[in-house]
Write a structure and sequence with these properties.
The structure holds two protein chains of two kinds. By secondary structure, chain A is of the alpha/beta class. Helix content of chain A is 42%, strand content 17%. Chain B has two domains: 2-184, Pyruvate-ferredoxin Oxidoreductase, domain 3; 228-293, Alpha-Beta Plaits. Helices cover 30% and strands 21% of the residues of chain B. Chain B has helices at 14-27, 103-110, 121-129, 135-146, 150-163, 168-184, 211-214, 249-253, 279-283, and strands at 2-9, 31-37, 46-54, 67-72, 89-98, 115-119, 235-239, 259-261, 267-269, 289-293. In chain B, a hairpin with a 5-residue loop joins strand 8 and strand 9. Classes of the chains: A alpha/beta, B alpha/beta. Chain A binds chain B through residues 4, 111-112, 115, 168-169, 172-176, 270-271, 273-274, 276-277, 280, 357, 359, 361-364, 366-367, 386-394, 401, 403-406, 409, 411-412, and chain B through 19, 22-23, 26, 31-37, 39-40, 58-63, 198-207, 209, 212-213, 216-221, 223.
């Protein structure tokens, strides 16, 4: 049955459908609506789970990992500063091989402090061992949480998963979402019953132990990497099962008008919807342009990205994040995925856009396309990431600087 | 696609109004996307909400830039350059404003040449619900302008008000309010936005600025005075000094320090600083504070 719900409600609904048993929580805008809904449903006895509010996100993630290791299906959520505050424990929980699901509602990171989204929060966690699924729509949010538990609890993977959704653009946005029947979800995702590596009073084990041997450290760390890489195939397999039951199919990447495209724009998350609208408009003007959205960020699906971009004239990667002093975070990963391809595009160019939730306008998409065309035809490649920032954007900032007491700022 | 932008202030029920409109459109068989937008949530601070209604799947997100219908739930927003609720208006936009002012006064004062409806929804709300939250009146009027049936509106508003924990008695009064608004409004011809007017702006290559400029600091002092906070409220507290015991509870509880104490020890409200939050009225132990509607701010 389709209902009009927010991205946050889509997360909470999925958590309820997955029969999650333990929810450690700590509020932060724009995520709080998720834990508010869950605590309300538990209070109204619509959901049978234990809900505990913690003193910080650091304790919250520790509790999530611990609960998972005593055999409870566990969910938690955070955003921005909260995720960063929990950072040390993200690496621990993945090392414990605790199959939790964490919803991150993307919000740009201070300073300056703001509320709207970019992906510097979630991408900071890219090396932590958590898998990462980034969603474009409220429907995909709900479906991804359900799939995340199945992938995470699979013994070929057995790693925690972050499902990412953009603050405001998804978190508070209502869209029609098909809410699957409980019986179908229970059939897809049976009860969580770990048979090894969990705390059982009858058979005590030690967990989170110290290894002062570098050989042992190397072994265990590399096992995490192999487990993560396994998720590429496991995702495909689980995606097929999901499609059979629910009729919706999700790939590691999502493509839009890609087949005959000469130029491709690579994006992630909810802004890809605006990207698709821009593709429609540019196609209407006769431009052969398409879009590739990367849905699975960890493990990084290098092979399929290389396949999808093979034979294209030029590719523009929009990073909605900035690694200060380097540029876009995903750009080098995409470039390296293509390096050994015989059919690699002539140029791959890095763009930074949508920081702090700044909308990416048609002027910006047009600029990307013309930069790609120029790079293909006249061998002109920008060395640094190209910032998507318009004269109007600068005009409004100039006005704010004046009010803040900085006077008339010249330049630009 | 029909694009509806609603503007109001925190506490006026604008988010709920947008949900009622969204639900009604969805129940009527449309693709719908709605989204409220507010910064740090505060009573009285400007809020906007956007509803997109379409026969085909919606490929847009975030703020609406071209509106088919603009609904302004608080006419004081029209005087604010920062919040300018008319910025998404095009030639074909229909505008509805909740105000006690006349249509011609509003037309001249804000230079509006569009199809315009001006209704005193706040008065209607007060008369019927004995409260001053115009959200439902705004929603019902908007739905009527959009051509939805009343039973659809009623079903949507009952569901939304129940969801946010409104008592049955208040829901019934709001249904009555919605019906009254529905009957008073005529159906308008709302234009579908087929071709969105876009202001193109060239990309620039930002250059480095001295840290004195490029660090996020405010060097101007006292510029909050430029923002008249009193404009935030539609109601102001009025003290009946006959019954006032000088207990100073209003002075202590006021979150905006809008109270001072005069030489005789009585509390005095600074209406330029008062946001009309209602806390003083609620806390006053002798109940000598009443809320009076602010006219022609």
């Amino acid at each position: 049955m389709k209902q009009l719900i927010t991205g946050n409600a889509a997360v909470a609904t999925a958590v309820k459908l997955c029969n999650v048993e333990y929810i450690p929580a700590y509020p932060i805008t724009p995520q709080t609506e998720i834990i508010e809904l869950l605590s309300r449903w538990i209070n109204e006895e619509k959901m049978d789970a234990k809900f505990v509010t913690y003193d910080s996100e650091h304790s919250m993630i520790s509790a999530a990992g611990a609960a998972s290791l005593v055999g409870a299906r566990t969910f938690t959520a955070s955003s921005s500063q909260g995720l960063l505050y929990a950072f040390e424990m993200l690496y621990n929980v993945s090392g414990w091989r605790a199959p939790i699901v964490l919803a991150n509602v993307s919000r740009a990171v201070a300073s300056p402090i703001t509320l709207e989204p970019d992906h510097n929060d979630v991408l900071a966690a890219r090396d932590s061992g958590f898998l990462q699924i980034h969603a474009e729509t409220c429907q995909e949010v709900l479906d991804s949480v359900i799939m995340a538990y199945k992938i995470s609890e699979d013994n070929r993977v057995r790693l925690p998963v972050i499902v990412n959704l953009d603050g405001f653009y998804l978190s508070y946005t209502r869209e029609p979402v098909d809410i699957p029947a409980q019986e179908l979800v229970s059939q897809f995702l049976p009860e969580y019953k770990p048979v090894f590596g969990y705390l059982d009073g009858q058979n005590p084990i030690s967990m989170g132990v110290t290894v002062l041997s570098s050989n042992a450290y190397s072994y265990f760390k590399y096992q995490l990497h192999l487990a993560s890489l396994n998720a590429l195939n496991v995702h495909e397999e689980i995606s097929q099962q999901f499609e059979k039951l629910f009729g919706r199919k999700y790939g590691l990447v999502d493509e839009y008008m890609l087949d005959d495209a000469d130029y491709v724009i690579v994006m992630t998350n909810s802004f890809a919807t605006m990207g698709k609208a821009a593709i429609n408009r540019l196609r209407g003007e006769g431009k052969k342009v398409g879009l590739l959205r990367i849905r699975m960020i960890r493990p990084f699906p290098k092979k399929i990205i290389a396949e999808k971009l093979a034979g294209k004239k030029a590719v523009g990667v929009i990073d909605q994040n900035i690694s200060v002093g380097s540029g876009g975070i995903l750009y080098p990963e995409i470039t390296s995925a293509l390096y050994h391809s015989n059919e690699r595009p002539k140029s791959i160019i890095s763009f930074i856009g949508g920081l702090g939730g700044k909308k990416i306008s048609i002027s910006e998409f047009r600029h990307i396309l013309s930069t790609l065309e120029t790079s293909f035809h006249v061998d002109k490649f920008p060395v640094q990431s190209v910032m998507l920032f318009t004269e109007d954007d600068w005009g409004s900032v100039k006005e704010m600087l004046k009010i803040a007491g900085k006077g008339e700022v010249s330049g630009n | 696609m029909i694009t509806v932008s609603l503007f109001g202030r925190g506490g006026q029920g604008i988010k709920t109004a947008s949900h009622i409109v969204g639900d009604a459109a969805f129940t009527s068989g449309n693709h719908v996307q709605d989204q409220p937008l507010y910064g740090a949530e505060r009573r009285g601070a400007p809020i906007s909400a956007y509803v997109r209604i379409s026969q085909t799947p919606i490929l847009e997100r975030g703020k609406i830039t071209n509106s088919s219908l603009v609904v302004i739930a608080d006419d004081s927003l029209l005087d604010s350059i920062v919040d300018n609720p008319l910025q998404t208006v095009t030639d074909s936009t229909v505008i509805m404003i909740n105000s006690s002012k006349g249509v011609s006064e509003i037309r001249t004062r804000y230079n509006i040449n569009n199809v315009l409806a001006v209704l005193d929804l706040t008065k209607l709300t007060q008369d019927i619900t004995h409260k001053s939250i115009p959200g439902v009146a705004v929603a019902s009027t908007t739905c009527k302008l959009l051509g939805f049936e009343f039973d659809v509106i009623e079903k949507s508003l009952r569901a939304e008000l129940k969801e946010i924990g409104i008592h049955q008695e208040d829901i019934s009064r709001n249904v009555e309010l919605a019906r009254s608004c529905f009957n008073q409004t005529t159906h308008a011809k709302i234009e579908t936005i087929t071709k969105i007017k876009i202001k193109e702006s060239p990309i620039i290559d930002p250059i480095y600025h001295h840290p004195q400029i490029s660090t996020c600091t405010i060097t101007a002092t006292g510029n909050s005075r430029l923002r008249e906070r009193g404009a935030w409220s539609n109601f102001k507290p009025v003290i009946d000094y006959e019954g006032c015991t000088k207990c100073m509870i209003c002075y202590v509880y006021c979150p905006d320090s809008a109270f001072t104490i005069d030489v005789k020890g009585f509390p005095v409200v600074d209406y330029d600083a008062c946001k009309g939050c209602n806390i003083c009225k609620t806390e006053c132990p002798t109940k000598v504070i009443s809320l009076v509607r602010r006219e022609n701010k």
